[in-house]
Design brief:
four-stranded antiparallel β-sheet, single chain
């Protein structure tokens, strides 16, 4: 389990809770609960009623949505310091998506009552929260647009470009996405088949834009990848 000082560091660096003063962070830590989840354990399901929100202290969480037919799309992958579940925590309604631990994870849970009290006490937190929600709304809109108007190669390039911005690390010969993403996972992110993702990965590899090995992507031609996002 993370130490108290480690949790404080995660909170103060968070895009929402970083707006809190020292006393408010103390209040948050006193009221919050640390919950541990094993790999592949469900945190909550789409449609569940909300009782609060979560902050990733350690590990990695996948946000996903399911159609009535049972097909799955991964909307996002969140690591340490990220907040999720904020929409339903605000209005008390149903969860708009499900969440699953993608590896052993420690999550800080903040109940609705505590979160509402923090919002009332901190206008800066409210502004940060609205900014995050606008960013996620734009991201969701782009996913819908991609699914309807772009082919699999362009959608794949756009998702890899985003992952590169969030998880890219420099290494000899290019930028490596430090996050392991299987072809099945990429397919679920794009709403495509694994076979179509494999085909487009191989095409991008033949073009010298990237290499894909054992779930890891290394981008050798960033400009080429960017151009592919616009096709």
């Amino acid at each position: 389990m993370p130490a108290a000082e480690d949790l404080r560091s995660v909170i103060t660096k968070n895009v929402i809770f970083g707006a809190l003063g020292s006393g408010e962070v103390d209040r948050l830590l006193a009221a919050a609960t640390l919950r541990a989840y094993e790999k592949d354990q469900q945190i909550f399901q789409q449609g569940d009623l909300a009782d609060g929100l979560y902050l990733v202290a350690t590990g990695r969480v996948g946000i996903r949505t399911l159609s009535e037919e049972g097909s799955e799309i991964f909307l996002n992958i969140l690591e340490g310091g990220a907040v999720f579940g904020e929409i339903a925590a605000i209005d008390g309604g149903a969860r708009t998506a499900g969440a699953i631990a993608m590896e052993r994870s420690d999550l800080l849970f903040v109940d609705r009552r505590t979160f509402h009290g923090l919002m009332l006490a901190s206008p800066a937190l409210c502004v940060s929260l609205l900014t995050l929600m606008c960013e996620r709304l734009r991201w969701t809109s782009s996913i819908i647009e991609d699914a309807h108007f772009r082919d699999v190669r362009t959608r794949l390039a756009r998702r890899l470009h985003k992952l590169l911005g969030e998880y890219g690390v420099e290494q000899e010969g290019g930028m490596r996405i430090k996050l392991k993403v299987t072809q099945e996972m990429l397919a679920r992110m794009l709403g495509a088949t694994r076979e179509s993702v494999n085909k487009e990965l191989m095409a991008l590899q033949r073009a010298g834009i990237l290499t894909y090995s054992r779930g890891y992507v290394t981008v050798h031609d960033g400009e080429g990848l960017r151009r592919t996002t616009e096709e």
